[in-house]
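Here is an idea for our session: we take a single protein and study its fold together. Once you have written the record down, we can walk along the chain together.
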Amino acid sequence: MSLKDINSILFVCMGNICRSPSAEAVFKHKAAEQGLSLKIDSAGTVGAHAREKPDHRAQKMATERGYSFKGLKARKVTRSDFDDFDLVLAMDQHNVDELNKVAPPELRYKIALFLDFAQNHEETEVPDPYYGGANGFRYVLDLVEDASDGLINQLI
């Protein structure tokens, strides 16, 4: 499948309260700015935070940059996500490995690292900011914005 044929994207981290909802919020905003009509969601590989709102620090940093977390609540990745989404983008290799355990073998081709699309950063993984301070959440946004721009450039 060509990236030009992508209609739906799922962003995935571990708990779905920091990195993946940040990616969802940023990417929705940037896709809308480009007039792209895509199904965009996020999920976690563990369900410990299911139905919780995103981390307040992630929301604060993203809101300062103009992104909205309205309506976002954590959920766990399901097997059906691999039928429902054209692209499943993990924040780090650990989550790629966990996704490969859930995905049907014939749909594993949909899984990739989100930072594969980054244009201005050398990192391959979005670090988990959960146990750190505000700078970690800001850095996650820097990486997510970069990868979002790179992915959008390939979609349009």
Remarks:
- The longest strand covers residues 8-13.
